[in-house]
Structure formats: C-alpha cells, structure tokens
C-alpha cells in the first residue's frame, strides 16, 4: 500500500449532479484504484445504487449528514478501509472519493482527517470539488449557509447543467466573492474530467514534485504578480458575501518559526470554528531556502511540511489564505502584522499579544 492515500471530497448543494459526476469520473481509468464513500440522507439509501463501476469499493455511511451526525462513523470507516488494505483483505487503492450530501458542510470532513493522528498519516487531502447548478442559478443558493461553505472551501468549482442554462453573471459574481481563487470548470464543455479535478494537492503524484503555486491557487491572485503590487510594503485583500469571507495576507520578509507558531495558536484560539479552511506557505528565518507549508481546518492543523526548495514559479515570501465565517478582517490583519513585525498605528505588537490576546482593538 502506497502512502499517502489521496482523498477527494466531492460536494455541492442539493441537485447539483454529484452522483452523475462521480459516475463519469469512475469510468476514467485514472480512478481504477479508487474507493468511494457515499453519504446517505433519508430513510432509505439510494445514491450508492446509482454509483457505477466500483461496487466492491463503495462504503455507505448510515443516515445523517457526513458533516456532523456520522462524522465518527466516517473516521471509523476510513480506519477500517486502511486496515483491510494493510492486512490484504482488499486490494490497495490510490484514492478515496467522499461524496457528501447536498446539505453537508465540508469543513468538518476535512477536520476529521487532520484531527485523527492515525488517519493524518495514512490519508492526504488532495482537494475539494464543489458542483454548482447553473440551471438553478443563484436563487437556489444565496442565503443557504451550507452552499456558501461548499463554494468557499473548494479547490475546484464545477458549473453543471450549463447546457440547459448558461451561468448568469450574478451567480458567477457570487461564486467569485466567496472563492476568488478556485479554478472554475464547465462540466457541459467537457472541462471537468479527472485530469482537471484530481491531483489538486501539494504534490504531483507522478513527478513527486511540489505544486505549491497551484495548491495556493496563486495563478489567480494578484499578490503573486510583481506587476500588481508595490515592492516597498505588504498588503492584504479580502472578498465577502454574507458572513463567509476569504482573506489573503502577504509578507515578503522571512519570519521566525516561533512567531509563526504563536500567530497560528492565537488565531485558532480567537476564532476556533469560524475558520473553515486555511492554507499557508511561510518564508522562515530558520530555513529561508525551504518553504514551510501549513494547512488547517477549523481548530485542527495538518502536521507542517518543510518542502525541499521553493518552486521556480514561486518567489520566497509568506502568504496566508484564510477562509472563514464571521471573521473581522481588521483583527486578522492586525494579528498578522504584530507577529510578522509590521508597524501599524494603534495596533499591539507581538509581545503585547502573547501576554494579552484581547489587546487587539475591537476584541
């Protein structure tokens, strides 16, 4: 069994076409060694009967939403899956696809992988794929907290049913406000195949090289383009709709590992479950030639990864992306500035914060 086993979370609001997409993916040879976990919601399970081509590898969770009532069962099933492969009771797989219900919040699913010490050593999150029903449009999604969270945490966003109705500008604007970095693909145009949806994680599984820029979705962020920011200062920007917000913070000078740890600890202690997802590459004083990669969901952090070197497409700098709910961007910015040594008027420094986290204005 080759570790880590990559995990793809397939989500999307009710009726977006998740099972149809899953069936299409499973027909691709690239997913020939894939186990599928299908979450059911209702008195009788039906979705797993619609999944074609991988019946022996399908694991059905009991009634309930994978984000809450069966979260413990999800952990148990994934642990059992690993045990069956290790003991030879089933063939080894390269990937697990978790299809959530339309009412699921994906963040606890991701947190379950990170919070369990054994699972975090066996499985690695490859990406979150969120389907958005273009035919239903914005009226079927706006104001639905589950739908906002599904879009906000996605690495890939797939527009479905565009052959029935093209995505209207309001829907696209809503998506971009929630998630300005994820790649948007059109299923009807054939863009949402395995090659586009899979391997969205930190490493290229074939070349064993890092894909740091793509993992951070840097190709869509002006802060990574030298033509779109000033060299003499740092900056941040954020987008929001409702209470869900995406915040990006950049710092060009190296920072100490202790400052990074203190910042993350304080950020999580202050905002806890408000953090839906966090990604970061850090330029450290201790290892200036090797980026430190951090990945977290809610109050849980994946073990830090120190890469071998900076990829050619990425200049050494610290970049933090936080997707949260009910976050005050000024508080996060002040906190980041304090621990990276950036002078800000009327804001506490690192020493003050480590002694009194409530020293941040507005807290």
UniProtKB/TrEMBL annotation:
Keyword tags: Chaperone, Hydrolase, Nucleotide-binding
The keyword Glycosyltransferase is assigned to this record: no
Any Gene Ontology CC annotation: cytoplasm
KW Lipid biosynthesis (keyword) present: no
Domain CobW C-terminal: 244-340
Record Pfam families: cobW, CobW_C
Entry protein name: GTP-binding protein
Protein family according to the UniProt entry: Belongs to the SIMIBI class G3E GTPase family. ZNG1 subfamily.
Function in brief: Zinc chaperone that directly transfers zinc cofactor to target proteins, thereby activating them. Zinc is transferred from the CXCC motif in the GTPase domain to the zinc binding site in target proteins in a process requiring GTP hydrolysis.
Xref: SMART domains: CobW_C (SM00833)
GO molecular function, one term: hydrolase activity
Matches recorded under InterPro entries: CobW-likC_sf, CobW-like_C, CobW/HypB/UreG_nucleotide-bd, P-loop_NTPase, Zinc-reg_GTPase_activator
Catalysed conversion reaction: GTP + H2O = GDP + phosphate + H(+)
